[in-house]
Design brief:
Distance between the termini: 156 Å
GO molecular function: syntaxin binding
InterPro entries: Vps54, Vps54_C, VPS54_N
Organism: Stomoxys calcitrans (Stable fly)
GO cellular component, one term: GARP complex
Oligomer: single chain
Protein name: Vacuolar protein sorting-associated protein 54
Strand content: under 5%
Mean pLDDT: 75
């Protein structure tokens, strides 16, 4: 009875499940639960069908899209795939759930087919529709910066907002953005009109497809009517679900003795008032439990049916496995028997042989240890032998090897426990011995007599092999302080040599000279004596520096050999100085080479300092070197500097500074003598023309052709003064021809030219003073310019030289002298620039000053004549006689001016002066005509003016004071142009 009731109940549930989707009978691939078709018109299921049709299907609307309603299942499935599904690679992830998360599908996604099965099972065939949870504060999703930066909330920056809330302060109103336009339905009209036709066609096709689906489902239902029993059982087995069984029956610890558990299993059993009711309740409970049991049995049967093939396969393969195991056991037994016999016949004897071989090896190692101990025991006698032959590197290598053997091979041997300490002491002793030997060698080598250099053949380094052994040992000890020790010894030797030279020089000198406390500085040496002493000192010091260079060269070769290379020990053949491997690293090699370079530079610098300090500053200030002495001193210092630079590769400064001091003092004395001489001559200058000696003409010609000043020594017999040139007066010319242009000069101008040539010749002979002399030339030219301006334009010559007046001739002579200097300036500048490129400052300024002075002289000349012409025109009146006395006086002034400047100034300058005078005359005459009210009307007064102008222009034509185009009679017309 219970079984029948259970079958009827299961049949009803199956019918209800199949009737839920009458329109989806053809979607078998999407909905695997609807593979069974039953009669929807059966009389037993008609009440259930009506109940299902009245219920709301889960696919008719979307939970999360409230405006979306669907008429068919395929529309709902399409909506889920398009709106609530994401594709990640080849996997599909269902998002149909709260917050876009489906509760029944993994987040990592499934395949396309599994996704369709999932949609059909959990979303299309969903029996009960669970409403989405009610929104709460935990449903809100917002990031923290957006909440904190909410512009509608007040600032929470003080105590009031923290304690009393954000409503305590004002809120900021956020206006709508003007950049975002307002979107209305009118904006979608174009799109709706375009897509409307496609949407209507889509709806029509969907309706046709749904009609075809219903027809196919009806035909399939009629065709499967005869096999409903089999399909019903299959559907029943497929639709059985354990969710109908209460959870309490599925627990492992089901205990009916527990009262609450019993109450849940048998609810209201003992509470029925009557026995009939209690029996009926118990019957119903029994049927329900039988139903649960049937579900479990069906599930078990399904699992057994699914795994039946595996069960049969296991049973069939068990016999084969047993046979294989028996065969394997037989083979293992045979293998063990073979291994036993092999062990007895082969392995035991072989291992015995190996054990004997190991014992023999151990004995040999013991013998080797004993031999090694005997060798180590002989270390100290061997060290004595190596040190006796000065093989320091081998001795140090032996000590190092012995220490390494003691720490690695013979560790723990008690008889050698004191040997490492003894070896360390021996190593320290060798280090001290090497240092002492090196100092003794350096002292002996550096203090050898200087005359021995002539007897040496190959090099200036004595006992090279000994030096190589000592340096190699010091390098092996990593003791690089020998370079500083050698530098100190070299400095002491240099100091002793200079002291000895000073003592010898004092002994041979007749002057009374006393030494200072240092013994290197003589108080009363003249420049000549200093040069003689310096000559001897430089020769001796260069000899010592060559010895030092030779020693450092051997040191460099030894260092390279210690670093793994080969060196040349005094010959042309490469000699390997060490038999062992290189022990000096590349960084140590570079470090020692740098120290040797510093040694040479320091010793050369010290030599320069000592040479510069041979004579005290007080002694040098008493005398000044002559040109010959300065040339000799400069050559001596230059040779010594080049020799030192070849040795150390660095130029030394102290001695050159001392020479430059003497050069500056020589240049200052040279300049002061000539500046004083020029000043005296300018003060006594009468500013008259002098004859030009032929020697001056030759000098100017040579300067103009070759720009050379070397022949300026031709004029050396006496100074130029007051119109004659000492004894050089055999041949003279009235003018100086400069590039075929005559120059009429005064005596001071000739002396200035002679001085400038002397400056250039001295700079060429002594390039060391070129810079000083260049500045002195600028100062000399500035002095001549300023003093001549004071004497002539400023009328200082009236008081100094006793002149009665400053005439135009005097002014013209000064102007011509300045023009000659302007002609010489570019050549002098080029001469000094070839000697010292930085010694031409100030020449451009001097050139501008001379040009300005010449302009002032021209203004002074035509100013004198213009004033006299203006004075005559002021007293002139347009009446006979013609020419009037005023115009006669004007003509006489013009003639006198021409007589004064014509023999001196060039024609172009004369034209420029007379041009200015002529313009001033016309301006003054126009003003006078306006004052006299004389008009260009052909009257008597007009005729008088024309006659006067004709006489004036005739005078200018006679003098040729203006260019030819300006000497016509156009003035008679232009004078009336006001």
């Amino acid at each position: 009875m219970a079984t029948v009731q259970h079958s009827q109940t299961l049949a009803r549930k199956t019918s209800l499940t199949n009737i839920e989707k009458p329109e989806k009978s053809t979607l078998n691939s999407l909905l695997p639960a609807n593979n069974v078709v039953v009669h929807a018109k059966s009389s037993a299921a008609s009440p259930a069908v009506e109940a299902v049709n009245n219920a709301h299907n889960s696919w008719e609307s979307c939970y999360y899209c409230p405006r979306e309603n669907f008429k068919a299942v395929n529309e709902f499935v399409k909506h889920l795939r398009e709106r609530h599904c994401t594709r990640e690679g080849g996997s599909f992830v269902c998002r149909y759930g709260f917050n876009g998360v489906c509760p029944s599908l993994p987040l990592d996604g499934v395949s396309d087919r599994d996704y369709d099965a999932h949609v059909a099972k959990y979303h299309v065939n969903q029996q009960t529709r669970e409403m989405p949870p009610e929104w709460s504060v935990f449903s809100a999703a917002q990031n923290l910066p957006a909440v904190l930066n909410d512009p509608s909330r007040g600032k929470q920056s003080n105590l009031f907002t923290k304690k009393w809330g954000v409503d305590f302060v004002e809120r900021n109103h956020v206006p709508a953005s003007p950049r975002i336009p307002e979107v209305t339905m009118n904006d979608f009209e174009k799109y709706m009109g375009k897509i409307g036709k496609r949407y209507k066609r889509h709806e029509r096709l969907n309706s046709q497809q749904q009609a075809m689906t219903l027809e196919e489902a009806s035909a399939a239902a009629v065709a499967s009517k005869g096999t409903s029993g089999t399909l019903h059982s299959t559907a029943t087995s497929q639709e059985i679900n354990l969710s109908e069984i209460p959870e309490i029956f599925l627990k492992e610890n089901l205990n009916l003795q527990h009262a609450p558990t019993f109450g849940q299993v048998f609810p209201n059993v003992m509470q029925s008032p009557s026995g009939a009711e209690r029996k009926r309740t118990g019957r119903l409970l029994q049927e329900q439990l039988s139903h649960y049991l049937d579900i479990v049995e069906v599930k078990i049967a399904q699992q057994v049916a699914q795994k039946s093939a595996a069960f049969f396969h296991a049973m069939t393969s068990q016999d084969a496995i047993m046979c294989e195991m028996q065969e394997a056991a037989k083979r293992v037994k045979a293998l063990r028997s073979s291994l036993g016999s092999l062990n007895e016949t082969v392995v035991i004897d072989t291992f015995r042989v190996l054990r004997y071989a190991q014992r023999r090896q151990n004995f040999e190692e013991v013998v080797d240890k004993l031999c090694l101990m005997a060798t180590v025991h002989k270390t100290q006698p061997m060290l004595q032998l190596l040190l006796g032959t000065q093989d320091y590197v081998a001795a140090l290598d032996l000590i190092g090897t012995t220490q390494e053997i003691l720490t690695q091979e013979l560790i723990g041997v008690h008889c050698f426990k004191h040997l490492p300490m003894q070896l360390n002491e021996m190593e320290k002793l060798i280090d001290k011995m090497l240092t002492t030997e090196f100092e003794r060698y350096a002292t002996t080598d550096l203090n050898r007599p200087l005359s021995d250099v002539l007897k040496e053949t190959d090099s200036v380094c004595a006992e090279e092999d000994k030096l190589v052994c000592i340096v190699m040992g010091l390098l092996r000890m990593k003791n690089f302080s020998f370079v500083e020790a050698y530098k100190d010894e070299a400095i002491v030797t240099i100091k002793a040599i200079i002291k000895q030279l000073v003592i010898e020089f004092i002994a041979t000198s007749d002057a009374e000279i006393c030494l200072t406390g240092a013994g290197e500085e003589a108080q009363s040496l003249t420049v000549g004596e200093w040069i003689a002493l310096l000559a001897k000192a430089t020769v001796a010091l260069l000899t010592v520096l060559q010895r030092i260079q030779a020693v450092t060269h051997i040191m460099r070769q030894t260092i390279d050999a210690a670093a793994g290379g080969s060196c040349k020990a005094g010959g042309d053949n490469a000699v390997n100085l060490i038999d062992s491997e290189a022990f000096l690293t590349a960084s140590d090699q570079t470090h020692v080479h740098e120290k040797l370079d510093e040694l040479l530079a320091a010793v050369c610098h010290y030599c320069h300092e000592r040479c510069a300090n041979l004579v005290s500053q007080q002694s040098l200030e008493k005398t000044v070197a002559t040109t010959e002495e300065l040339a000799q001193l400069s050559s001596l210092v230059e040779d010594f500097g080049q020799g030192c630079e070849l040795i150390c590769g660095v130029a030394s400064v102290p001695l050159k500074v001392a020479v430059k001091v003497q050069a500056s003092r020589f240049a200052n004395r040279f300049h002061s003598e000539r500046k004083q001489k020029l000043a005296l001559l300018l003060d006594t200058e009468r500013w008259r023309q002098v004859d030009i000696p032929n020697e001056f003409q030759k000098i100017i010609d040579r300067i103009g052709e070759n720009k050379e000043f070397s022949a300026a020594a031709a004029i050396s017999n006496g100074p130029v003064a007051n119109g004659h040139v000492g004894a050089v007066t055999s041949v003279a010319n009235p003018v100086l021809l400069v590039e075929s242009k005559p120059y009429t000069l005064v005596a001071s101008a000739l002396l200035l030219v002679q001085m400038l040539c002397e400056y250039c010749r001295c700079a060429q002979r002594l390039p060391i003073v070129a810079g000083y002399l260049s500045r002195n030339v600028v100062d000399l030219l500035r002095t001549f310019n300023s003093r001549s301006c004071q004497l002539v334009i400023g009328a200082g010559a009236l008081r100094v030289a006793g002149l009665k007046t400053i005439t135009s001739t005097n002014l013209a002579l000064v102007s011509r002298a300045l023009q000659l200097v302007l002609w010489l300036l570019p050549k002098i500048k080029s001469h000094f620039q070839s000697l010292d490129a930085t010694a031409v400052a100030g020449f451009d300024i001097i050139e501008r000053d001379y040009q300005g002075h010449i302009k002032e002289i021209e203004n002074k000349i035509y100013g004198i004549v213009s004033d006299r012409v203006a004075a005559q025109l002021d007293s002139w009146d347009a009446r006979p006689p013609i020419p009037s006395q005023c115009f006669r006086n004007i003509s006489r002034h013009l003639v006198k001016l021409h007589e004064a400047i014509a023999p001196i100034l060039p024609e172009l300058q004369i034209h420029a002066i007379y041009g200015i005078v002529h313009r001033n005359f016309k301006d003054k005459l126009r003003k006078k005509l306006l004052d006299l009210n004389i008009l260009n009307n052909g009257g008597p007064q007009h005729g008088v003016v024309t006659s006067e102008l004709t006489f004036y222009m005739e005078t200018l034509r006679t003098l040729k004071a203006l260019p030819a185009p300006e000497l016509d009679d156009s003035i008679r017309e232009s004078i009336w142009t006001f």
